[in-house]
Write a structure and sequence with these properties.
homodimer, Jelly Rolls, three-stranded antiparallel sheet, 8 helices, about 25% helix, globular, oxidoreductase (chains A, B), iron ion binding (chains A, B), dioxygenase (chains A, B)
Chain lengths: ~300, ~300
Amino acid sequence: MKDLYPSRHATVAEFLPRHDSVVHGDWNADAPITQEQAERFDRDGYLVLEDVFSDAEVTYLQREAGALLGDPDALEEETVITEPGGREVRSIFRIHAQSHVIERLAADARLAGVARFLLNDDVYMHQSRLNYKPGFQGKEFYWHSDFETWHVEDGMPRMRALSMSVLLAENTPHNGPLMLIPGSHRQFLTCVGETPEDHYRQSLKRQEYGVPDENSLAELAHHNGIIAPTGKPGSVVIFDCNIMHGSNGNITPFPRANAFLVYNAVSNRLEAPFGVDRPRPAFIAARGEPQVITPITGPLMEEALT
Amino acid sequence: MKDLYPSRHATVAEFLPRHDSVVHGDWNADAPITQEQAERFDRDGYLVLEDVFSDAEVTYLQREAGALLGDPDALEEETVITEPGGREVRSIFRIHAQSHVIERLAADARLAGVARFLLNDDVYMHQSRLNYKPGFQGKEFYWHSDFETWHVEDGMPRMRALSMSVLLAENTPHNGPLMLIPGSHRQFLTCVGETPEDHYRQSLKRQEYGVPDENSLAELAHHNGIIAPTGKPGSVVIFDCNIMHGSNGNITPFPRANAFLVYNAVSNRLEAPFGVDRPRPAFIAARGEPQVITPITGPLMEEALT
């Protein structure tokens, strides 16, 4: 199969054309978002949906997050990621398979329905995680396109995936929120160099390969600017798989927390990686026959009571 | 002399009362700031003056900053501070004594006149520096009260000093701008532990002693909030010597740069340090007979041409 998005092969970075749509479906009156929202997602590569979940639902999710973060020994060991040089839990991967509450969240029609529309296909969970960025000592996460990594290291063929960050703590301008470069999803920026074996063990903590070069980042940021959506718990930030994003550290006392869900189109399921011999493990990138998500309507808590 | 602000003596932090005014003068119609500004400074501990310097003056200052940062070998070696583990210049101290342009800036009536009013005394330069926080890799600077350090390590007796940050690059919400906790200047938060000898060599790069405890910081931030003044080059952020402040790192391509000037009242000149045997060197904290500043009016460039 021809590699439409070759990366980490050359010594010089370049911008390549995007061969895939951003909004894969045609908007119609039955769509779960407005036409204006669909156009904005297409143009900017991200969308903020405010107050998607009620206060009661947020409390319910926060309680679950606290329970999971507070008892990491109950989880699959490899899915628990700590701060570099620290013991504080920073992320728990494959959380939809380890928590019924998060499984229900991922299937919620308010999320999965939007993913199905934007990707115009059945969807499945490519990756999920619970992120907790503690106050005072939260580390930065450098700029990257998720797709670049998913393509090179996991074998995702095309740009037909998206991420949803369900805010479980308030995003302020000061606590190291997700920063995005609007419009940067419209080109594919190659990264230089090659990828060492088992790179993922380190890259979950600190990115060193698959890192965009400073000149290209400066060009993107000067041309498009940088935005950092703020929002209250219960809001959702949706962003395209190829948008350039990162986050600064956080010395404020205010932690950041979110449930992070990556939806992929079933037609875009993983193949062999495009840049490494051995794919990353399944807890980071689901492989094999996709488990198609059937959207569920109604409050999150109802399901939990059955 | 009784130590009104003891710190680093105990194992538990505490909030002590402030025994000094914030605005030391009485406002009158001749004051260089409005009554509302004076009241705001008193209440919040900081003030932003927008567009103090013209575009031509900003260009003139930026050119001088570039020349100084670009040729550190021409400067007193100990005044040049690099990033931890790097060679990029982060700060140049005692810059008013090494650059006629910055000396003129420090004497400008738009700055020194305001300092004289707020401190109600003749003023001198306690410390000056040129700060440059590069894009992509700019490190964080943890929360601290300047006065705590100036008192313990330099021997500044009372809270009768203030800082002015003259912006030479745009402060955006994303490039690691100065963050302040409004109102935190109204109490003195003691720090725990003792200070090792020659602590200053490290502390200019990374603060390890004289660090406020997390519980007290959380209390301050939850009660007062956090603000990060944004502004264009030529704006000035003035803040009280005892306000709690810090800054996050900066992964954006946008650098931060400012000229940082600390004015102290001549009546508040340094004595023996209150918490260490040997004071820090004079390039960090001016000692001896103060060199009183006589405010100069008119554009910055005129002086340079004489």
